[in-house]
Model the fold of this input.
Amino acid sequence: AVHGSGGPGQWREVVGVIKNLKIMTVGEEPTPQVFFPLYQRLESYMTLVARVSGDPAASIPAFRNLVHEIDPTMPILGTGTLDGLVSTALFPIRFGALVLVALGGIGLLIASIGLYGIIAHGVAQRTRELGVRMALGAQVRDVLGLVVRDGMRLVLGGLAVGLGLALLVSRGLSSWLYGISPYDPLAFLGGPLVLLVVALLACWIPARRATRVNPIDALRAD
Done:
């Protein structure tokens, strides 16, 4: 028992203590809570929580009937499962995350298209050079390796700068995130891997096309 708020001489029985409880939202700071018996602190409403075996949703009608048998005049404001209540509480967060994922996906798509176009255009400008190299004895694998190395060197430099800036910005986003680290490895590896694959294709496809140019035609053009 502990002293109540009424001052010395008022004692209350404690039936439960929780060190860190979130009451309103999942993003709030947890606070310690003390639980008293219902007869010592009567509220105008109460919540009945029950653990059942099997499907919880299928047990809801039985609980409603049980409450009506005890007191037919007692109103039941709402019923539901714990999973449903958690989903409702997390809906704003999940919806915001879905919007951010969609915007991030669109941004990644635009970046991938732009990256492919820039690299492919640069490789296409070297078609004559690559034809001359092959006319002078370069093998197809040598030409492909040259183009891919040059293109990937540029992409890796850009990714290094971008990841460095992302690490700095992530520190300011830590207060906006819940249940996930601002340095989530999936987020920091997924995007760069997609861009690396796109850059590799942007280098390989035009270079492969350039190796099919007749070296004699390339020499005549020069």
Notes: The mean pLDDT is 78.
